[in-house]
């Protein structure tokens, strides 16, 4: 990045924040730029693996934390009931 570009980024805190979040892989905090990076990454991986990049972009993604929360809720609902006399 050129010094002029760095000066511009330093002057615009929102742009700098977005760039740093993207570089750190924290796309959920990067707004639209993070969304674009994720879609481009999915399309690139699909293309490299011989899949259809268009389908990869439009397919809904579930994050790992969301999958863990869903699994824990299922366990609490069906396996480990709270406030159960046998629990």
Question: Which short descriptors sum up this protein?
Answer:
87 residues; mainly alpha
Describe this structure in words.
InterPro entries: Unchr_helicase_relaxase_TraI. This is Relaxase. It holds the Pfam family TraI_2. Residues 1-86 form the Uncharacterised domain. It comes from Escherichia coli. It is a single chain. With 87 residues, the protein is mostly helical. Helix content is 68%, strand content 0%. It has helices at 3-11, 13-23, 31-48, 53-58, 64-78. α2 runs parallel beside α3. The longest helix is centred in the middle third of the chain and has 18 residues, at 31-48. The protein is flat and about 65 Å long. The relative contact order is 0.06. The mean pLDDT is 82.
- The value of Rg in angstroms is 20 Å
Helical segment count: 5
What overall geometry do the principal axes of the alpha carbons give?
flat
Low-confidence stretches: none
Looking at how many chains there are and whether they match, the oligomeric state comes to: single chain
Mean pLDDT: 82
What is the gist of this entry?
It holds the Pfam family TraI_2. The chain is mainly α.
Q: Which helices and strands appear, and what pairs or packs with what?
A:
Elements: H1 3-11, H2 13-23, H3 31-48, H4 53-58, H5 64-78
Helix pairs in contact: 2-3
